[in-house]
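Entry type: protein chain
Record version: 2
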Amino acid sequence: MNVLTPIVRVPAATHVRATMDGNTACAHVAYRVNEVCAIYPITPSSTMAELADEWAADGLHNIWGGIPVVQEMQSEGGAAGAVHGALQSGALTTTFTSSQGLLLMLPNMFKIAGELTA
């Protein structure tokens, strides 16, 4: 189910509203504002990864006018490593995970935080 629609300019007096679950809402925002999505589908975040992958396959552009690179990795650690590499190259990057997956990403997150510029 493709729920992401192209942004349509509407007069300021009207509002476009959509009802969706939290995973879908998060996927909308993350896809629109990032250049790289490193994914490893893990419940309960699988929906976000699948939507990002579907939108990229459909050629949907983000707000920067490009199509984000969506790369499925072999593990949560691999996804964290891909995020690290993409951030090092200057790309706006995201990943989707669960609480258990976040624990597996901690070593990479500390490495990323330690390399931040002041």
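Comment: The chain has one domain: 22-114.
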